[in-house]
Specification:
By secondary structure, this protein is mainly alpha-helical. The protein has 3 domains: 184 residues, MFS general substrate transporter like domains (Growth Hormone, Chain: A), CATH 1.20.1250.20; 56 residues; 205 residues, MFS general substrate transporter like domains (Growth Hormone, Chain: A), CATH 1.20.1250. A two-stranded antiparallel sheet has the order 1-2.
Length: 486
Amino acid sequence: MTRRAVIATATRSVPPARTWPWLLFVGTGAFVVSLSHSLLIPVLALLPAELDTSVDTVQWLLTSTLLVAAVSVPLLGRLGDMFGRRRMLLVAVGALIVGSLVIAITDNVPLLIVGRAIQGVAAATIPLGISLLGALLPRERAGTAIAAVSAMLGVGGVLGLPFSGVVAEIFDFHMLFWISAVAACVAFAGIALVVPEAPSHSAGRVDLLGALLLAGVLVSLLLPLAQGSDWGWSSPPVVLLLVQAAVLLLLFGWWQSRATNPLVDLATLRRRPLMLTNTAAFFFGFALFASLIGTAPYVQAPVSSGYGFGSSMVTAGLVMLPSGCCMLVLAPVAARLIAWRGAPQVLALGGIVVALGWVVRITVTGALWHVVLGATVVGVGTGIGYAALPALINRHAPDDETSAANGLNMLARMVGSAVASAVGGSILAAYTMTLGTTPFPSLTAYRVLFAICTAAALLAAVAALLIPSGERRAHGVGGRPPRSVR
C-alpha cells in the first residue's frame, strides 16, 4: 500500500467525534466569506455621502469583489488540486482576513476598493472546502458535510442583509469588517490546527496563459453585466467588452484543448452530467440573487406604491432571515434525500420548490408575511439545490480535479447572480412609477422579474432531470482516469 493510500485509509477511519471540528471550521470559513460578500448591499446607498464620493465609485466596492472572485475561484481550485486543498483554503481565508482589515481601518475609497478586491480571492473558500471534506470524510458522512458547506453560499448571502442592517444602525460599516476579520481569524486558526490535508494531489504545472485568458474572459463578461445599467447596454464600452469576451473565450477554448496541463479540462467539463449540473447552478444562482434584489427594495418601497410596506433597512433584512435559517437547517435533510433518491432528483425538487416560491411572490402581495413566505420558499428550494450541486460534481469529476470542478460550478452560480443583477436592474428601471419626484419600480416590474425567475428555476429542474443517475465514472472505474496518470 502506498503512503497516499495509507493516509487516506487512516483519515477515513477517524471517528465522527474527531471530524466534526473539520466541518465546524471549514463551514465557518465558508459562512464568513459568503457573509462578507453581501455585507455592503444594505448600506450601499449610504456610502456616497459617508465617503464623500459618487454612486458610480461606490458601486466598485461590489464590482471589484465580483471580478476578482470570478478569476480566483477556478484558479485556486486548480492550484488546490495540484498543491493541496487545505493549503489553498488557508490562502483563501487569509485573503478574507487581509481584505477585511484593510476595509476596517480606512475611509480612503481606493483602499476600500483594494480591500474588497482582496476579499474576492476568498470566494474560493467554498469550493475548496467542499472538495477537501469530500476527500477526507467517508461517503456516509461526506454528504451532510458537503451539503452544509455548499449551503453556506446562500445562507451567508441571505443572513448578511439583516446582520448588516442591525450593525450599521448601531455602528458604521467599518464594524462589519472588524467582525468578519475576527471570525475569519477563528476559521483560519481552526483549519490550520485541526483540519488535515487531503492525500490526493495531481501533477503538472500551472497553466499561466490559460489563467490569463480565463481572467480576460470573465472580466470582459462580468464588468459590462455589473456596469451595463449605468453605462448603457448599447454603449461602446459594453458592446466592445462583450465582443472581447466572446473572442477571448474562443482563444481560451483553443488553448485549453492543446495545453499539456490545462487550467480547465474541457474533456471533463463537456461530460453531460457536469454540463447539466453547471447549467442548473447558473439558474439557481440567478434565482437566489434575484430574491435579494427583489425583496429588500420591495418591502422598503412606500405604501403609496401599491405594494411596498415602507419598512426600515433592518426590517427589510429580517424578511430574509427565515430563508437563510431554512437553508441551514435543510442541508442535512437534503443530504439524506440525496442518499435516498439520488442527487439529480433532489436537484430537480429544489428547482420546482424555487419556482413555487416565485409563484407565491407573483400572486400574493397583500401583507408583509406573504413576502416572507415567498422568500422562504425560494430559500428552501435554493438550499436543497445547493446541497445537491456539489454531490453531483464530486460524483462525476475525477478525484484529482474535484477542487477545480467545484470551483467552476461555483463560478456558474456567480455568473448566474451577475446576470440576475443585470437583468433585474434593467427590468426594475424599465417599469417605473413616480411618487412625488422620486421614481420607484412598479409592481409590474417585480412581477416580470419574478416570472423570469420562475422560468429559470424550472429550467434548472429540467436540466437536473436530464442528468444520468448511474454510478460515477471517474476515479478510473470504467471511465476517464485522473489527470495525473494520463
